[in-house]
Amino acid sequence: MNIPVVDQELCIGCGVCVELCPEVFEISDDKSWVTGPDKCGTCDCDEAAASCPVAAIELIEEQ
Ligand code: SF4
Description:
With 63 residues, the protein is α+β, with helices and mostly antiparallel strands. Helix content is 19%, strand content 29%.
């Protein structure tokens, strides 16, 4: 299972990750926050990480 982490310095608040994974990410103060890291297994966070225009989403592998 992967846990997504957003680099707040890089995030431009475009909302792409929220559109792809609304259960995992939330926009607040023009930044994306991981509000449901454990929901990652139910959707494709690989796609969110790959779709982020500034590569701000890192996926940490959790055993
Ligand atoms: S897709 Fe990337 S830049 Fe856009 S809101 Fe999500 S983390 Fe931020």
